[in-house]
Amino acid sequence: MSTLPYKDPYMDWTPFAQHGTGCKRVGWDVRQAKAEFTSGSREVAIRAICPEPGGGCGRVFEFHVSLAPDRDPETGDVRSGEAWSSGGVDKIGYGTKPQRIGDVWLHAGPPVVEWASEDGPEWWYVTRSAEPPTRHEDTLGKVFRLRRAGRQLKGRFGGGAGWERGKYYGMNLAETREDLPSRTAAARWVEQRAAELAAAAAAGGETS
Ligand SMILES: [Zn+2]
Hints:
Structural class: mainly beta
Shape: globular
Number of strands: 10
Bound molecules: zinc ion
Number of helices: 1
Radius of gyration: 21 Å
């Protein structure tokens, strides 16, 4: 049985995240996410992000731990593991500059799926503020790209307006459509429809 090499409890702490040259931000946005699965597996991810708005360098560092109670039945390998990665915020959406369309802002949403990363984000949250949203209630809805079964991008965009609490899973978009001719048109539709839904809810909960 081998032993692990001696670790000095002071010296072996090493830098996790470092800003890019010329970065104007001092600190980091540090965010964490946890997930539990019915298989009994759990995942924890911690991200240190330097957002681009305000002169940040747009770097992101992630530490990811996955805990699984079992082994792969074929290879016998443990499924648990840990991984460290780094890159630019364009890969995750969060931390990129929000884009203004008329009176609303689009915030690229994580996750950008691996196979689409060269095409940019798959969807954007729509807000009335340039501040990145932290709750569904901060947003008017979503604009999303549409793909064919073979993953090719469609020429049209989708929009989702308003939120309602799902029966089983978190928050769902109250209304969606998939026939909008451009991302700008989708953002405008989300803005308008979310306002109509909010006005209808304020008038007594009926939507037309
Ligand atoms: Zn930075």
